[in-house]
Write a structure and sequence with these properties.
Elements lengths: L2 E5 L10 E4 L6 H8 L17 E6 L9 H7 L9 E3 L10 E5 L1 H10 L1 H7 L2
């Protein structure tokens, strides 16, 4: 069972990293939803937006190759890097994975959770 660690973006009011045991085959977004990591998902994980954009720090190769549709949607994302992926498309393999939640994704999460935004003053 792989471990998945979520590193939060360096923005005001963001919590410490979260590390959880995850089942192989789950997406990064599914795990985020289960553990309360602040990964945005305006389209509900249907590959129609880029709000679940994360940076894969370790374990990138265990996530499988990026597909054309994900690449197309990634064109909408901000600050795309070589290690960028969409959390809704990354299925976990057997290796541990560490991702940083992008500021874009965190802001989308706050938009989706206005009560939490009020608590942080963001």
């Amino acid at each position: 069972m792989p471990k998945l660690t979520f590193l939060n973006p360096r923005t005001k009011g963001v919590r410490d990293p979260i590390t959880v045991d995850a089942k192989a085959g789950m997406t990064i977004l599914e795990v985020a939803e289960e553990c309360g990591a602040r990964v945005g998902h305006a389209c509900g994980g249907n590959l129609a937006c880029s709000t679940c954009h994360v940076y894969v720090e370790t374990g990138y190769d265990s996530l499988g190759e990026i597909q054309d549709k994900e690449n197309d949607i990634m064109d909408k994302a901000f600050d795309v890097r070589a290690e960028s992926r969409l959390g809704c498309q990354c299925k976990l393999g057997s290796e541990d994975v560490v991702v940083e939640i992008t500021e874009e994704s965190h802001k989308a999460w706050l938009d989706e959770n206005p009560d939490e935004r009020k608590k942080t003053g963001s």
